[in-house]
Amino acid sequence: MSIVASPVYAAFLISSVSDTNDRCGAGRVNNDDLLKYNRDAWNKQVNDANRWTRPVSIDVINEARSGKFEIVLTPTIPVPAVWFPELTGADTLCLASGGGQQAPVLAAAGANVTVFDNSPAQLDQDRFVAQRDGLSMRFVEGDMADLAVFPDQSFDFIFHPCSNGFAVNVLPVWRECFRVLRSGGVMMAGFTNPLRYLFEDERVENGSLAVVHSLPYSDLDHLDEPHIQNAIRAGKPLEFAHTLTDQIGGQLRAGFLLSAMFEDRYADSDNDPISKFTDTFIATRAIKP
Ligand SMILES: C[S@@+](CC[C@H](N)C(=O)[O-])C[C@H]1O[C@@H](n2cnc3c(N)ncnc32)[C@H](O)[C@@H]1O
């Protein structure tokens, strides 16, 4: 791989190996540098008003207070009501879920919510809703693969919307979720079907569905290519596509039992070329026995 003469890249191009389980190129970067880069990138997404950073309205919170709410793990389909555990007083971890969206809704519905995210600006969106609407919530900044700040069995419910595509390795995320959940607890997760990343244009900028990438996919393996150079210049987060073995098998290997799932895709209005043909997002409901 050629080294690109940009200070942004330079931070990543170091040779330490951070996790021997890595299957997505982590051996070529330091995880702290990746976290730092993606933190800045998500802070920028807040400035740019990315759809996953826009706080919910006061009306949505007021409805949730009376038990009426819909939240998503994936782009479009609301999580079925029957998936939720009793929320009143449930110790709930909204994992890599900043943006003032799901966490304050669950808090308004009665849950005791901790929102955990790598981006302080994303956490500020949740703080904004909490202050605006008088909700009591806890805000913790950190890496989803390391929940050491929480003792074992701290939560009854984990809500983890599509965000593990920003983690270089998803297996530690499932292991940590299992550890911090209480027995009988529920974990809901959304994630991307890796098939999205087969295509030349996995960022859907020119609509090309030519198959060029093998899976699992890592942006770190393509740092010198134009599509990643453009993404980094635009301050976009770096992404990873984990295999279904790691996404679904990884939950099972961590000890979870799966009780339900559904697939989803972008809405027609998003003009996503792949969504014209197939679902590319998956939501799962898991239980810690
Ligand atoms: C697509 S947004 C998800 C939040 C949004 N509320 C939703 O509905 O999907 C992805 C989130 O993951 C967070 N994130 C990315 N990498 C992370 C990491 N390693 N640990 C914790 N959070 C991370 C980002 O800061 C961002 O808030």
From TrEMBL:
Gene Ontology biological process terms from the UniProt entry: methylation
Q: Which InterPro entries match?
A: Methyltransf_11, SAM-dependent_MTases_sf
What SUPFAM superfamilies is this protein classified in?
Answer: S-adenosyl-L-methionine-dependent methyltransferases
Checking Pfam families in the record gives: Methyltransf_11 (PF08241)
**An example molecular function term from Gene Ontology annotations:** S-adenosylmethionine-dependent methyltransferase activity
Print the keywords alphabetically: Methyltransferase, Transferase
- The signal peptide here is none
Say which domain of life the source belongs to: Bacteria
Q: Where is the Methyltransferase type domain?
A: 93-188
Q: What is this protein called?
A: SAM-dependent methyltransferase
Source species of the chain? Aporhodopirellula rubra
Query: Lineage of this protein's species?
Result: Bacteria, Pseudomonadati, Planctomycetota, Planctomycetia, Pirellulales
